[in-house]
Specification:
The protein has about 500 residues and is mostly beta strands. About 5% of the residues lie in helices and about 35% in strands. It has a domain of about 350 residues: Methylamine Dehydrogenase, Chain H (7 Propeller). It is globular. The N terminus is likely disordered. Belongs to the cycloisomerase 2 family. This is 3-carboxy-cis,cis-mucoante lactonizing enzyme.
Length: about 500
Amino acid sequence: MFYFCSSKDLYMSSLNVSSYPESLHILAGSFRSLSLFLLAFSPAKRTLSLVHQVPGYGPHQYVTTDRDKMRSLRRQADGKLDGSIAYTTSWAVPPILSSWEITPEWQINHLDNVPITAVSSYITLPPPYTHIYSMGGPTGEVHLRSPQTGSFAEKVQEVLFVPSEKLADTDKSRKALRYGSHAIEFTHIPGTNTRLAFVPVLGTNSIEVYNPDSGYLTHVYSSPSPRHGVNDGPRHVKIHPNGKMLYCVTEHNNLLDVYSISEREQTNSTETESTWSTNPLTHLGTRSLLPPHLSYPNAPMKTVHRFRGDTLMLGPGTEEGQLPTEIWATTRGTTEADRGWISVFKLDNAGMFIPSPSSNEISSAEEGVERYETPTSGGKAHAIDLYPKSVTSYYSSPFTASNSTRTGSPVWILLTDDSDYAAGELREESSATETIKAGKPLGGVRVLEWDGWLSDGVREVVGWPSGTDEERGEPMRGGSHAVWLTTQGDLD
């Protein structure tokens, strides 16, 4: 197992870590294997190792868990609950969704598979935790959640993004994810009865808006891209914990848009309960996912199109329950020669970018943003998940302790990499980084770290597999998506 050395290593070895968890567990999928992989990251030793290779039904593109539900129940019960449930999408043919039990002893047991119409790229279990929603390509699915096992129960709705009469002849494979639906997120605006769900659809350059009050999704509005006539390709959305701000990554032009979410206006018109006469989303501003020299208009669009806007995630806040101070986003290269980017943007208490850009232009200022150029393109991956360093207390170092001006929420960053380099298929190319040229494998799943603003920026910590690890079962050849399984409540 390999790791990237840091100036903190000697300091970390002197810490008394007996009061901290030995490992943070991770569940990862791969585009190039059928299995799931349970990994363990040691913050103290800065190592990443395989716990179990789990025979699966992949390739598993996306992984999620019921960790938000578990946090909610822990707060209510003031105690710990045993185990959790994971849900995965798959590129299998015919398409399926799967559920998995994760025991307190870190055993992973398959619960069930359910058939779906088209390959899915996203799955989520929002409050009140009764329905499981998945989206991908021309369709979306709504399943009841079994209250006994947490697995899938009855399928109660299929959501269409093409006319019903065209569905039979529509591509339902993973290729349809390039121009169909790609995600779903939910909000309940505090102090109101307004509940909404948002689905970005690449091919229509729109965010489709739904009323989810009954558990079923009722379409109420199609919110178009703020740049009329431009093929943005909205791909991934997240909603601020205040319920009033939505963020959207566009795949085709590598932008991060922020919108305010409005409650429904009361009118005396003939407007029905199933439609809105006004757009619930108001565009507030845009930041580029690429540094200025690669962003339009400083660079031509053919340069921008060398990258694809990928995923985004709100930071965890400095402590559990606190509002995020950052939002993170990634791009991946369209070829192996184009390296990807991780960007972190500073947010104010309301969830707006700092500094606040005009809604009519793309901010080219680099104030309030830090960027990290990844060693590879990322392949089809470059998904991220974040874990707060404040929980493990490992981010303290002589550097952070001596600089009280540093702000932000330090995090461990999970990054997946599907590039040929990460998969072990090294090539001699002039664009390769020194790490790649030296023949050091990067790993399909990597842990990076960030200690806040004015620190040393984003840094690589460790990756798996290293190329020297003993292989057990089906090997991972590049990662697709990985999530932290350990929640903050597990460490209380």
